[in-house]
Amino acid sequence: MAELAGSFEQYGAWRDALAQAIVQFRRWLQDSKLLDAEAGRRVGVVLDRLAEDKLVVAVVAEFSRGKSELINAIFFADYGRRILPTSAGRTTMCPTELMYDESLPPCIRALPIETRARAGSTSEFRKTNDEWRIFPVNAASADGMLEAFGLVAETIRVPPEAAKEYGLFDPDDPDQEDGVDAEGMVEISRWRHAVINFPHPLLKQGLVILDTPGLNAIGAEPELTLSLVPSAHAVLFLLAADTGVTKSDLDMWRHVVRDSGATENHIAVLNKIDGLWDGLKSAVEVDAEVQRQVALVSQRLELAKERIFAVSAQKGLVAKLTRDERLLAASRLPVLENALIDLLVPAKQSIVRSQTVSLMERIGEEVRQTLAARERGLIEQLYEMRGLQGKNQGSVERMLLRAQSESAEFEKVARKVVATRFVLNKISSQALAHLKRETLRALATTTHERMSRSWLPTGFPAILGEYFDGVRGCLRQAEARIAEMEKMIVGVQSNFAQELGWSLAPPMAFSVNSYLTELDRMQDVVKGQFGTFVALTRGKWPLIQRFLETVVTRSRDLLMAAERDVEAWIGSLLPPIEAQVREQRAQLIRRAESVQKIRDAQESLDGRISELEGALAAAQETIEELKHQLDRARMVARGSAPQVADIAVSEIPAVAAPIADFQEVERVRQRVSA
Ligand SMILES: Nc1nc2c(ncn2[C@@H]2O[C@H](COP(=O)(O)OP(=O)(O)OP(=O)(O)O)[C@@H](O)[C@H]2O)c(=O)[nH]1
Ligand SMILES: [Mg+2]
Questions:
Q1: Is the pTM of this model over 0.85?
Q2: In degrees, to the nearest 5, what angle opens at C-alpha 582 toward C-alphas 489 and 590?
Q3: Nearest CA owner, ligand 1 atom 30
Q4: pLDDT digits 0-9 by tens, 623-632
Q5: How far is the CA of 260 from the centre of ligand 1 (A)?
Q6: Residue 303 and residue 268: Cα distance in Å, rounded?
Q7: Which residues make up the environment of ion ligand 2, defined by Cβ < 5 Å?
Q8: Domains defined along the chain, listed by start
Q9: How far apart (Å, rounded) are the C-alpha atoms in residues 21 and 24?
Q10: What pLDDT does residue 216 have?
């Protein structure tokens, strides 16, 4: 784990440094009075995203392939013992997430299985604490943890009717008949889902591990296949060398892992290779046997050999606990750990980097434009004032008139921004209406009704297909309005470019394609699973209803995410233009005031010129400092620190102190915008 821990730690440290660089950039913007509310909000979103950044590893397999043992061996060997319960036969009974959320004390939150009889997917229950049972965990004691973690293996015995109601038992299935004991009861998991929260160093870095139960349990919880597994950054699919690839392994691989998309995140693990180490075979012979099995797995799963790792989780764990390097090498666990690092860290880092950097560049560009306008305005004023030197009162009078009329002209153009805001609000509420809960609810209700009226389950896929078309339609409608808004803003900008010579960066492009792709993916998974599901459940309506519910929840989450993003995008359209308007207005007013004062001999021309020179120098210094700030943040993002944390405060160049004139401009600006 040393390397794994090391690389996670590095990633965590890099992410923290990046967050600090952004905080510093924000502070500088605030101190320089260059951060408007909208930009502040966007920075806040990025910082939240960095703080909540997670790396999710899901471990999926039939029961008893060694999932929990592998998790113990890779991630938790430093506790000096097994943490997650493992045993022959079914052990982990419910999907279990291991994570750390520092806002909560170490605890296990468990959702009772009885919730399966009610409407609502796990993720819906997650939104509140109402249904969850919370158990404290003593994170300081390995014994205490082991005892607490035993919860995920807890079962209860219920009559077959209850098990049937939870979707965990089918009396018509001959395979499941064996599940009924002598007293006519069925043993099922006590919990539907467990979230273990404890402050392990890796979990503190944002690692989330998802341990899952075998096929029977996983098949009945569509949430896992539709949401948790597909959104994991790495999915480890386990097989055991002693059982080979069985039919149920293959079913699980196909339906839960492969069809969930994101194949680049999948790794297969052939566990329990220690079973092949019989004392009579040479190392070469054992190796040949392992290679042969890997080739077989590759063929059955249709997965490249390079993505298959043969290991012994158990021997790996023992080796780590006894510090036996030779055994550790023989377990081949380190090879898998390195592959996991390669799979997780670089890809994640590059996504986080590009999201963060692009935001900073954008804000940097907007601020640069404001500063450029300030610089330009000051240069023009200086030019004018210098032109007045040695001129008579008449020239001053003429200049005053010109300044006043330019100010009036400007206001005429600037009024367009107000009109634009009005129209924008109108179109934006149209765009957002398509993404609202209510729209989707209507769609879901129709689908539900049509399905319940449908005579044969064979009609379901077509009805589901139309549901997805409906959701796609919502996104497309919103997209059309988005295009309208974008066009409008480009129009306003080009108008300002013509009339005032402004060069504003075009609005950020917004596309609904990523949501459409996600929806396509979801539809593929649903299509793939639905057939199996209907066959497995023999068309049982309550189970189909639950499946449908999960689909609706997932698509609603998608639309809600789209709604949030569209809203944020709309919110970012006007502020840069408005900031520019404020800047220019303040300058024009200041200019007219100052010419007036010169005319009335309240201010000396030379005094005003030197004030303007000072203001210009300050503006130029701020422009330089902006470049400097952005460069530093870029460097941290690239990972070629000096990390901000390492820079002593004294080394950070002081922000150019605003000189008197500048403060005055600021006051004028505030007066004007008030
Ligand atoms: N020989 C050998 N046994 C192993 C290995 N890994 C796990 N086991 C054993 O296999 C059994 C099942 O392991 P678990 O980790 O409980 O399996 P699981 O996949 O989590 O099973 P469920 O929780 O039931 O879904 C346990 O008795 C483990 O000790 C291994 O590498 N070699
Ligand atoms: Mg297990």
A1: no
A2: 145
A3: 272
A4: 999 999 999 9
A5: 25
A6: 8
A7: 67-68, 91-92
A8: 54-154+190-331 (3.40.50.300), 364-603 (no CATH)
A9: 5
A10: 62
